[in-house]
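---------- Forwarded message ----------

FYI, see the Receptor ligand binding region domain-containing protein record below. Original note from H. follows.
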Amino acid sequence: MTLIPYLILQWIAVVIAEDADPSFKVGVLMVDGSVHNRFDIQRIGPAIDIAAESCQSKYNVTLSLLPGYYPRECSAEYAIGRATDLAMITNISAFVGPACSDDLQVVGRYASYKNIPILTGLGDVLKDRDEFRTLIRMSYDLKDKAHAILAFLEHFKWKKFGMIYRQSDVYYTAMADLLFYLATSAGFEVVCQQSYIRAANKTILSNLDKIMETMRDCSRVIVILGGDKDVREMMLIAKELDLTSKGDYAFIYSELFQNEAKGNLSWSRGNGMRTQNNFLTLSRS
């Protein structure tokens, strides 16, 4: 993902290379010092600095990077505050970031109103593209992920399926809503939906045993929209309910990236149980 800011700033430099004034003020809107966010300024900042140096050496374009950082975690309030502060005190040419979807929604609309280009590597839950006229988003689209799941189901002629998703999470909730809409529009039937809640410390607060029992009785094809550790817990319960030994049930979990941060991890936790039976993983490469 560190390549994204580099490509973004390279693109900026090419666009403005013909301008008389080679200086270019870029507001960098990023979370600062996050424990959990992989896209905070500590992780992404070095790539932005390298890109700025490359723009200067290759295109003779000076990028003046103006910090619009906010502390520790995503915050739409802080993001729009930092963006307006920068726009008021200087002639901002563009924004890079935010890298949080909720933050991007408010800043993206503001940038559209002010006619300021905004570039980000994320922003996967934006629904109405027309509201973000100046946004260039270098990320995947949730529709692609939903269409991939439906194409997989269509291949096996599975027209009915159940769905489990993490509630109160903007990514998974938006994904669930979109998948339901596209599925029903394409002749599929979502026969049942169950949601679960996870606390900030990643503890699952919902009764997964009850959720899996409900899904067992309503559908043999189950799409799971949640984190990998949550899915593992569900598959352990599925094994205990004898849903993984005979091939009667299929569990589908979509996975965007295969790396050590997401997807390419060991399911073994030393309990001797094998949880992957009948577990179908979709991966986009």
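H. also flagged this: The chain is about 40% helix and 20% strand.
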